[in-house]
Amino acid sequence: MDKFKKIIGVFLTMFKIGLFTFGGGYAMIAIFENEFVSNKKWIDKDEFVDIVAIAESTPGPIAINSSTYIGYKVAGILGSIAGTLGMVLPSFTIIYIISLFFDKFLEFEYVKYAFHGIQACVIYLILTAGIKMFKSMKKDLFNTIIFAGVVVVMVALTILSIKLSTILYILTCGIIGLIIYLIGFLKSKTAVKKEDK
Prior knowledge:
Layout: H1 2-20, H2 25-39, H3 45-57, H4 62-100, H5 102-107, H6 109-136, H7 141-159, H8 166-196
């Protein structure tokens, strides 16, 4: 019965987030953390940072990937289905209704003003999520170098008006992390062999 309550809880929480959050997946990250880490305490901060990294690295929208993974962590396969449905249903329904009279919808002056206000809020939500993830990041030498390197490269390329996909940054950092891990693994294997001799 407890698992059933968690499945329903995942669905309702994801439905609420999907219904009331504007700005896409990045804007939802701070809300996911607030709901599932701070309020419900169903996952811890380290797990949440890993979830966001995996959700960003895998194909598909980050919000749906995150909701699927969070649902799985909380209540298994049924939780992942509930999380995904809870996230997708509000957006699908709203977009379907808007598509029926999209041109008329955009003609309303109040709608334009509402979207300008929402844009400012979305910037705040994305910035908040970034700051929270930065605070929870381990501050070791490797992470600091990677973070600083990505910031410097992004700023330099922005100044030079060169656009690169965020996927390229993610893949590059993932490959660097894998190389560093393999170097450490090989060093430890070599040290063990030397001790055995």
